[in-house]
Design a protein that fits this description.
heterodimer, A: Aspartate Aminotransferase, domain 2, Aspartate Aminotransferase, domain 1, 2 domains, seven-stranded mixed β-sheet, four-stranded antiparallel β-sheet, 34% helix, B: alpha/beta, Aspartate Aminotransferase, domain 2, 13 helices
């Protein structure tokens, strides 16, 4: 694929995009040493070529609208077009963040209402919409826990417990906020080893970061026991909400003992993933942590909605303004469209789809932890004939028109294939995926080269090692 | 049910396959005590048309969206060519995720590579990443990266930093036990370089700063020893101004909203981040790199991933995962459409118009420029009137400026800040000046 720098360029003309009556930039009183000495080498490309170039790039991408996208842990559900339409309304997009409260009532009301809905989903005391991604929510959660222990004079609580199945962002978030990480092993059913957890608990433990259900797609059956043990030891429970889709409309993290819980609006609440953002990662907290939430708060007063900066116990701000507002607009539209009934159906169908796939695929692929799964499950490519790897399976799926599942995660399953169908795939699509996976298992035996050489289209397997060893990170002019 | 293709017959067939009799059974692993405590939201489902109507109603009660913005602070009312949102909203871009599978993510990856190139070129740096959340968190990540590399436990920060950036920096510094020391500004509005302390991991400077003043970056790096020079800048200004990289900056960050993104009440935004080649291993965030496929055809993949959380876990350079990819794509299309020449044109127009407005304001009695140093597209005027009263009067006349309390938090009383873009017209200047005089329109 050629880059924009290799396209035919236009003779640059001043005044194409701006009014012509403004005069020149001279005599602004800026010292000449501070003025750009060398012209920018970004080419001016004419609109027809720009349009073709980025349209061609888009065709070299695979999105949810292109086909099945069972990327485990990412909840690649359909992104409703209604959400895009309302988020593009000029009343939302054209609002500068300096607009004082009276001038931003519509957006403030929406944010207030969304906060209340998320609080209801969490079953917790309060919610902040400020974090703009899941990992940003985790970081905010770590700051909240740090603040809580500071206020209690328990600054020796520097250890964070994490199951060995945790997302990579969990240990990274804990570490950048100054916590050390202690890993808790999983038991033979893929759940937290509660005895090992109890052994690890002492007065140096700040808390536990737990993904519910866990990254194997298994619900922690002893969740109440786990949170009670952590609370008894003086710690706090952080629940990673990446997998909320699986118990929507059935259960609430607050009822399981969560003190901090982050949402991924771009997973559970249907806002687009955008090729890696922008998402949104609001956090919910239990009563003891409410005062520490980031500023500003969105509050309802007699005469309307307002931003409240006067929260002296707050950890402070974690975003330039008020979080990813246009993402919040999309999530709010999704809530209104679904209602309670729709929300319950989301969870049911997500779990039904996953169990259906698990049941059909476990006959051919190794399933490490058998039993009910929630919204996702993890197969292993280990044991396929001819040492076919998870990577080979993934690349062959590309040939067959499916986006591969998450591979090599969680780390506790060798050659992992982590599959999350979501509720927006229908049975017919699931059956096609099963056929593709069965075909691949057969090919692993009969024609393994086909797998090792996959994909065959749209391009061949890319060499990641070269990119890691000799990184070429920009176009050389 | 909206967005769910399964029919009742499908569900029955699937339950049969699984060997379960009901959907409820699929949730038998969630403790009953937890399920018993569940409470619904009390929310009814609306039709698509009703939801659209409700959201239109909310959008139309944002009076500020109809006001003429003279507010800035990192978010500006620039013009974005129509081609930007048209192309950036193609669903192959919008509905994809992180390009873990490069062979079917060449669109996202190529655009990341283009963006990195443009960021490096604009900032005068070796390497840019594929984006962070926003200008404020990009700056906080820069402070963390400098501290990771130099480990002196202390970072100096210019007092003339946007207050909303400072708030985020304060949170991140507290959260990681990093000490911040403030460097005051001179009467001309520029950093007091003589007052920069020693024994630092970094000095953080913003240009144009919170007063719109262009900092004199020349010679600053020489005062710092091996401490990082971290510069937060306005990307549009770099169409006209020498990039921070030319003055020896170690990290350059910016808020990229100005590059073709809507204001959106301040989010989503676009964090831009660039550094020097030797610091690549400490850089936060994703990067795309060029490679070849098995046939030797060039392509792009995520590169230098050993810095990242999904590989390195607790030892990662940053916890960042999802960032602002789609915003970076829009900015790439914006810059690709304008080119270097167009960016210079926009920058020059902004500066020229801001200077025109500034001249017209200070012609009036009771108004003067607060600072003598040159500015770009934002400037601060001192007024003999009560600034809050002026602010209210402007609002009633339909003009949006930043509340004076923001400047007060920087120790500047009796002052207002104006930001000007290429969109502001002479007719709007006439009306604004009239409103400042207290004349009705």
């Amino acid at each position: 694929m050629r880059t924009i720098f290799e396209q035919p360029r236009e003779e640059p003309k001043a005044g194409c995009f701006t009014p012509r009556d403004a005069g020149s930039a001279e005599s602004l009183g800026i010292e000449s040493a501070l003025l750009r000495q060398r012209p920018l080498r970004i080419p001016t490309v004419s609109e027809p070529i720009v349009a073709r170039h980025y349209t061609a790039l888009s065709k070299a991408n695979f999105g949810v609208d292109d086909g099945f996208y069972p990327l485990g842990s990412c909840t690649m559900k359909h992104n409703p077009k209604l959400n895009e339409a309302v988020a593009a309304l000029p009343g939302f997009t054209g609002l500068h963040p300096a607009a004082v409260d009276e001038a931003s009532q519509g957006t403030l009301e929406l944010l207030y209402e969304l906060t209340a809905l998320l609080q209801g989903v969490a079953g917790m005391a309060a919610v902040s919409l400020q974090p703009v991604a899941g990992a940003h929510g985790e970081l905010t959660g770590m700051f909240l826990m740090k603040r809580y222990f500071e206020a209690r004079g328990e600054t020796q609580r520097k250890r964070m417990l994490l199951p060995d199945s945790a997302h990579g962002t969990n240990p990274a978030s804990a570490a950048v906020a100054g916590f050390s990480v202690t890993e808790i092993p999983s038991d033979d059913r893929g759940m937290v080893d509660v005895d090992a957890l109890r052994d690890a608990l002492d007065e140096t433990v700040a808390g536990i970061m737990l993904t519910v259900p866990n990254t194997l797609g298994i619900f922690e059956e002893r969740i109440e026991e786990i949170s009670a043990a952590v609370h008894e030891a003086g710690g706090l429970c952080y629940f990673d909400g990446a997998n909320l889709n699986s118990f929507l409309g059935r259960a609430r993290p607050g009822d399981m003992g969560a003190d901090v819980f982050h949402f991924n609006l771009h997973k559970t609440f249907s806002t687009p993933h955008g090729g890696g953002g922008p998402g949104a990662g609001p956090v919910a907290v239990s009563a003891p942590l409410v005062d520490y939430l980031p500023v500003p708060w969105i509050v309802k007063k007699d005469d309307g909605f307002a931003l409240d900066w006067d929260r002296p116990e707050s950890i402070g701000a974690v975003h330039s303004f008020f979080g990813n507002v246009l993402v919040a607009v999309r999530a709010y539209a999704y809530f209104l469209r679904l209602g309670d009934e729709g929300i319950r159906r989301v969870g049911e169908n997500a779990v039904l789809n996953a169990n259906y796939l698990q049941e059909r695929l476990k006959r051919v692929y190794r399933l490490t932890y058998d039993g009910l799964c929630k919204h996702e499950f993890v197969l292993s490519a280990k044991g396929l004939p001819n040492d076919i790897s998870a990577l080979d399976v993934a690349k062959r799926l590309i040939d067959l028109g499916v986006h591969p599942p998450t591979i090599y995660f969680p780390l506790i399953v060798p050659e992992a294939l982590m599959i999350e169908p979501t509720e927006t795939e229908g049975k017919e699509g699931l059956d096609r995926f099963v056929e593709a996976m069965l075909q691949i298992a057969e090919e692993a035996e009969m024609s393994p080269e086909l797998l090792r050489e996959a994909p065959h289209a749209p391009m061949r397997r890319l060499d990641q090692t070269q990119a890691a060893r000799n990184p070429v990170l920009k176009h050389e002019f | 049910m909206p967005y769910i293709p399964n029919t009742d017959a499908d569900r029955r067939a699937m339950l049969d396959t699984i060997g379960r009799s009901s959907l409820d059974e699929l949730f038998s692993d969630i403790p009953q005590s937890v399920q018993d405590r569940f409470r619904p939201l009390g929310l009814e489902s609306l039709s698509e048309m009703e939801v659209y109507g409700r959201l239109c109603e909310l959008a139309s009660s944002n009076a500020g969206a109809g006001m003429v913005p003279f507010a800035g602070g990192g978010v500006y009312d620039h013009y974005a060519p129509s081609v930007v949102s048209h192309l950036a909203s193609r669903s192959e871009f919008v509905t994809a995720y992180t390009p873990y599978q490069p062979e079917i993510s060449q669109g996202t990856l190529t655009a990341m590579f283009e963006f990195q190139t443009m960021v490096a070129e604009l900032f005068g740096m070796d390497i840019g990443n594929a984006s962070l959340y926003d200008g404020a968190t990009a700056l906080a990540e820069a402070a963390w990266m400098a501290e990771r590399t130099r480990r002196r436990g202390r970072v100096a920060v210019s007092e003339a930093l946007f207050p909303h950036y400072r708030r985020v920096l304060d949170t991140y510094a507290w959260g990681s036990d990093l000490e911040l020391v403030e460097v005051p500004y001179l009467p001309n509005g520029r950093l007091d370089a003589e007052a920069v302390p020693s024994d630092l991991s970094a000095l953080i400077v913003q240009t144009p700063n919170a007063f719109g003043v262009i900092e004199a970056l020349d010679g600053l790096k020489d005062r710092l020893g091996d401490a990082f020079l971290v510069v937060s800048c306005n990307p549009i200004s770099l169409g006209l101004l020498e990039p921070p990289g030319a003055f020896g900056a170690d990290i350059v960050v910016a808020e990229g909203q100005a590059l073709g993104l809507p204001m959106g009440f301040g989010g989503p935004l676009l964090g831009m981040f660039a550094t020097r080649q030797e610091h690549l291993r400490q850089m936060p965030g994703r990067v795309a790199g060029r490679t070849v496929d098995a046939d030797g055809t060039p392509g792009y993949v995520m590169a230098a991933q050993t810095r990242e959380q999904h590989i390195r876990r607790a030892r990662a350079t940053s916890n960042i995962c999802t960032n602002s990819a789609l915003c970076a794509l829009a900015a790439t299309i914006y810059m690709g459409t304008l080119g270097g020449c167009g960016l210079r044109d926009v920058a020059a127009q902004c500066a020229q118009r801001a200077h025109t407005l500034a001249e017209r304001i200070v012609e009036m009695d009771g108004f003067e420029l607060a600072f003598g140093a040159p500015f770009f597209n934002e400037f601060v005027v001192k007024t003999t009137q009560a600034p809050q009263a002026v602010f209210e009067r402007l609002r009633e006349a339909g003009f949006l400026v930043s509340p004076p309390s923001e400047l007060e938090s920087l120790g500047l009383d009796g002052a207002l800040r104006f930001a000007v873009t290429e969109k502001r017209t002479n007719a709007e200047f006439d009306q604004l000046v009239a409103a400042l005089k207290g004349e009705s329109r």
